[in-house]
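User: Can you recover a sequence for this backbone? Please restate the input before giving your answer.

Assistant: Of course. Working from this structure:
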């Protein structure tokens, strides 16, 4: 699957987008209209995205982040280093998925609990 079409957890992305819209002073009633404008979607599709009922792609996350002057990590929680236990060692790494090499930062430490 092409990196620009990777799907992310729709509900957590939608929650962060709503939070960022509020943070940037956009009234709750205007969220779907603004998302519709940013992503060139119908109002109903934008509304479904904001409810977490429609999947998000990396390209869509990037477009929303750029429109808000944020980084994609602020939306997709790609900055998981904030959730890492204290006793880990960060290492530059390569993540292999379906024959595709993805540069990343690996955290070497104790086994994580389920859901982390």
């Amino acid at each position: 699957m092409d990196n620009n079409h990777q799907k992310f957890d729709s509900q957590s992305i939608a929650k962060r987008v709503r939070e960022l819209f509020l943070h940037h002073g956009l009234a709750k009633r205007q969220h779907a209209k603004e998302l519709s404008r940013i992503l060139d979607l119908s109002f109903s599709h934008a509304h479904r995205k904001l409810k977490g009922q429609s999947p998000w792609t990396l390209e869509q996350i990037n477009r929303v982040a750029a429109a808000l002057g944020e980084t994609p990590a602020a939306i997709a929680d790609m900055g998981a280093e904030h959730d890492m236990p204290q006793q880990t060692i960060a290492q530059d790494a390569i993540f292999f998925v379906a024959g595709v090499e993805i540069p990343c930062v690996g955290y070497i430490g104790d086994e994580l609990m389920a859901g982390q």
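That completes the design. The chain is about 40% helix and 20% strand.
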